[in-house]
Design goal:
Blueprint: E1 12-13, E2 15-20, E3 27-29, E4 50-54, E5 74-75
The chain binds zinc ion (ZN) (2 copies).
Length: 77
């Protein structure tokens, strides 16, 4: 019988960087193409138009955040 009960395991996640698509203006993962408008984002310069979000819940977090204020995910680097 385990005697450590009632404690939620903190979820592990990471900070995901989303960039603002210059074509549709949506925030999307920094991938090969925009998941919203499917325009190519290859080698796109990111000029401050990006934000960091929790990989689990999508809440915007600080760049150096250690955990998500919303879902308590801890970020590992
Ligand atoms: Zn787009
Ligand atoms: Zn979160």
């Amino acid at each position: 019988m385990a005697d450590k009960t009632g404690e939620d395991e903190p979820m592990e996640g990471y900070i995901e960087e989303l960039i603002e698509c210059p074509f549709c203006g949506g925030f999307v993962p920094n991938e090969f193409e925009c998941i919203l408008c499917e325009e190519e984002l290859v080698e796109m310069e990111i000029e401050g138009r990006s934000k960091m979000v929790c990989s689990n819940c999508g809440t915007e977090v600080g760049e150096a955040a250690e955990e998500c204020p919303e879902c308590d995910t801890t970020f590992s680097y």
